[in-house]
Amino acid sequence: MKMGMVIDLEKCIGCRSCMVACKQHNSQPPETWWNRVFTPGSHRHLTPPARGVEYFLPVHCQHCENAPCEKVCPVGATFHAADGAVLIDFERCIGCRYCMSACPYGVRQFNWEDPEKAHQRSEYQEKYQYGYPEDHRHEGRLVYTPLRPRGVVEKCTFCAQYRDKGELPACVRGCPGKARTVGDLDDPDSEVSRLIKARDGFTLLPEKGTKPTVFYLPPKPKEV
Amino acid sequence: MVGGWGNPFDQHNMSNRLKERATSGELEFILTTDFQISTSCMWSDVVLPAPTWYEKYDLTATILHPYLQLQQPAIRPLFESRSELWIFRELAKRLNPEFEKHYFPGLDENEAALKVIELLLETGGFETEGITLEMLKKGPVRLHSPAPGDRQIPFYEQVQHRIPFPPPSYPAPLKATAQFLRSGRIEFYKDEDLFLQEGEQLPVHKETFVETEYKANPAAREKYRLRYVTKNSLYRVHSTHSNNTILLELQDNRAKVFLNPGDAGERGITDGDLVQIYNDRGKTRAHVVLDPGCSAGTAIFEEGWWSHYLGGESYNSLTYPWIKPLHEIYFVPGMWSPTTVWNECLVDVRRMDA
User: Fold this and answer.
1) Which ipTM score applies to this complex?
2) B288: nearest CA in chain A?
3) Is B293's CB within 8 Å of A20's CB?
4) Total domains, chain A
5) Which chain B residues contact residue A51 at CB under 8 A?
6) Which domains are seen in chain B, by residue range?
């Protein structure tokens, strides 16, 4: 079993529902986004680039097979789960941030602040919390906690807390265009494998040799 | 003024007039029901706490798909909030004890809501025939249509069964909308005095602003050279969610105005500048986005911002409720009646620090 995700850029309408679903379900404080949707070529989302065609690109942890973040971690906090997802053990992370400089996709986020203070910056009602409310352990390791302690790195877990219950990640469920598919990349008959083959699926920054398990299906050329 | 499910002190085309009338006392008393402290709540004498969508029963349908859906409470109403049905039943009772009988007295708010929904299903005509509350509790149910297999085929009865146009269009009764098409057919030529008088008996192009802005103030042609378009935002449903912190963060916590790079350059404006959008009627503020996709001569603002995010300056202080004469020929509320031509508005833009 090798868990993978396919994102169909032809179906992505850039609505950013996946960003909001991800942020809310995973209790991310202000300015922390595990998942981002860009308009490539333009510095502002949904503003077309001066040259070229407008399309939208969701970017989050690429759950690389050959993950540079895992290799540089001096304490083994970043690890591969049995299904191939790259996770962080919050009890081991020492906050050195080597992984953040090693990641070529810039998707890792650092907790600079006390988490309750960080949430309070949004002026929520006192004690108000959003997101999955309980700690979650995968293979005995703490991979999700609603309030990540100050000084640890965090990122997309493919929603480990939901997948371990047989549910889909929040971004997959929250996508109104059904642009995201998850499945087993080892199985040549799985929907993800078939989509990648039929639609020339590609990965981001293949020259880095990271072997991402997140694949993108190119948007169809538009008449301009 | 008693209101709910809306935010007229931002969204009304004369929101600034509303504010003036509230200040002068012409609007003696303002009551609003809402679950967020919107601008209209701030201008109200009394705010009654309504529940959110997830705390009450409702029946929802839309023109966007043919399904009827039951909105069911996921949690009990928080704090002191009560459903609008309960609120208005209590208000009605206090106005006149006789009125209570129209609001299913004796039933709690959820039971009463379900009774209303059952009544709607029973009296909904062929579209809701056979659809029960029990079916809706299990999930969305497709409404019946005159076409085979309940398919959505426009004008099926008109074409197949030769029933005169127009088809029913809700909520108005057919009798009210049938007057739009007296011939009983789709009309490309409108044989009506007012259409003839306005020269619009056939589809015709009329220049914008000639009958409105330029007529009211000929100097506007030179003074205000940008068409002001207030589009929907990706991050709100009109003015709902205006204060959602996650959605605010996605917009850099600030209102934007989209300008063509040429128009911005002419005015010494660069990307990100805080600008004032102004005309003779009002002003508001926003940060500039240079958008090559925005056609020259247009300033696009995203409607729905609560005015406290705009320094108290509403974007609807700029618009004016021009009335198109043809809108006065029939009167079917919400379908054919005088309304604002929102984009018939000229403005100009200058840097706040200039």
Assistant:
1) 0.91
2) A44
3) no
4) 1
5) none
6) 2-56+75-124 (3.40.50.740), 213-351 (2.40.40.20)
